[in-house]
Design a protein that fits this description.
Maf protein, 5 helices, 33% helix, nucleotide-binding, nucleotide binding, nucleotide metabolism
């Protein structure tokens, strides 16, 4: 059965904008903000649990749900802060995240995005992951979207890139391309 509408569970307008830019022509996308407590665990465990719980909630719009989890993994710290980046960024800010790597020569990092899709309550979520390797640098560019100002890919931070370029190479863009291909195969 063709997908007529997809509920993206997010309150983040920047994420919504990026998702609409990549998926908007495939399926009508609705957005709903839900306060979902995140479990501790691996990237996949957190993503699947979040999606299962979102699908189980009686949504106003109804239908299949899409959740997203973003990680920033410092290679020198064995992939920390990873899925806990939101809390690290809130507590430490951009400068504090940089300071975590002061004692290490290795400033490389991986930006990881995991989308989980679930048709509804009781269904097993499908996972679509994208990774981009870059490095952590002092903040450059606008500071209105998470840790974008400190993640550099080939000489530019995500914050310095125009949106189309970022969408074409970012962790989120890579995950969304996989999701988009899957959605197209379901039509």
């Amino acid at each position: 059965m063709p997908l007529t509408e997809l509920n993206f569970i997010t309150g983040n307008k920047n994420k919504l904008s990026e998702v609409k830019a990549i998926l908007g022509d495939i399926v009508p996308l609705q957005s709903q903000s839900l306060d979902l407590t995140e479990i501790q665990g691996t990237i996949e465990e957190i993503s699947k649990d979040k999606c299962r719980r979102a699908a189980a909630i009686d949504l106003e719009v109804g239908g299949p749900v899409l959740t997203e989890d973003t990680c920033l993994c410092f290679n020198a710290l064995k992939e920390l802060p990873g899925p806990y980046i939101k809390w690290f960024l809130q507590a430490l800010g951009h400068e504090g995240l940089n300071n975590m790597l002061l004692a290490y020569e290795d400033k490389s990092a991986q930006a990881v995005c995991t989308f989980a899709y679930c048709e509804g309550p009781g269904n097993e979520p499908l996972i679509f992951e994208g990774r981009t390797t870059g490095k952590i640098v002092p903040a450059r560019g606008p500071t209105n979207f998470g840790w974008d100002p400190i993640f550099e890919y080939e000489g530019e931070t995500y914050a310095e890139m125009d949106k189309a370029k970022k969408n074409s190479l970012s962790h989120r863009g890579k995950a969304l391309i996989k999701l988009k291909e899957w959605l197209q195969s379901q039509i």
